[in-house]
Amino acid sequence: AKADGRGTYRFFETGMDARAQARRLLEMDLRAAVQRDEFQAYYQPIRDVASGRVVAFEALLRWNHPQRGLIAPISFIPLAEETGLIVQLGEFVLRSACTDATSWPDDIDVAVNLSPVQFKSPNLIASVTSALAASGLSANRLELEITESVLLQNSEATLTTLHELRAMGVRISLDDFGTGYSSLSYLRSFPFDKIKIDRSFVSELATREDSMAIIRAVTGLGRSLGIVTTAEGVENDAQLELLRREGCTQAQGYLFSKPRPASDVAMMLERPRLR
Ligand code: C2E
Ligand code: CA
Ligand code: CA
Ligand code: CA
Hints:
Blueprint: H1 5-35, E1 39-48, E2 54-65, E3 69-71, H2 77-83, H3 86-101, E4 109-113, H4 116-120, H5 124-135, E5 142-146, H6 148-152, H7 155-168, E6 171-177, H8 183-189, E7 194-197, H9 199-203, H10 209-225, E8 228-231, H11 237-245, E9 250-252, E10 260-261, H12 265-270
Parallel strand pairs: 2-4, 4-5, 5-6, 6-7, 7-8, 8-9
Antiparallel strand pairs: 1-2, 1-9, 1-10, 2-3
The structure holds ligand C2E and calcium ion (3 copies).
């Protein structure tokens, strides 16, 4: 590239074009994928730490791309959120999760992630109501996972929606706890049913004293407030043992199983460890 300002500018512009074009292609691909039914809900078991029993499955979205294979959400959820397509995808996951859960033992719940963008859509309550009605799943078997960023935006309307969902019998979990700016204050803004301790704290449990202290504080907080605590990203027995010692209620992670398709749920229930 030329050293003068103009050359640099044009080079930069070309770079922007390439990126914008890649984004447009992905967006077109994403829209077509919604039409072509290329999305699938995968499920990861969540176990009660004390009994070892599976108490729930978390639904995690996957894109089965005809050329690129299985695509993880990190590669398409941000764009789906920017373009609003997450609303349709979110409805798809909700319907799949509720329908799939009706064939599981009825003491096993299903957890679904909600994007902050879904809270900006006026249809959220209606789509939860219709997913429950269409599947026949009882509302108390559905957990909705939200992150702190949901509470940052338009919080009055968001709180009203959360209270309405709660009134329907649906439970609300605070996901990725500890990664935001003021996690503790969010616990005061809404009576969450569950706190999900972010994976970053669990992965450093054995190596960092401060992670251990944070886990201890959060599980203690859960106990005092009567809120279930779930540790995410549990990958080994040492982590599970420390969590058990701290009285963490539930654990989820590769130690038990990676997320798998609905057809593997029976297998995940039979075998406590499945890599
Ligand atoms: P999340 O809600 O925090 O989900 C947990 C993520 O951690 C999942 O990644 C899961 O596969 C991964 N994970 C679970 N156990 C372990 C472990 O032991 N070790 C490691 N290294 N990772 C583990 P995944 O499926 O790639 O999803 C990433 C994120 O994408 C989710 O984070 C969630 O924020 C978002 N997402 C996934 N599905 C949906 C969806 O249906 N709707 C919305 N709005 N977001 C979704
Ligand atoms: Ca989650
Ligand atoms: Ca999480
Ligand atoms: Ca996350």
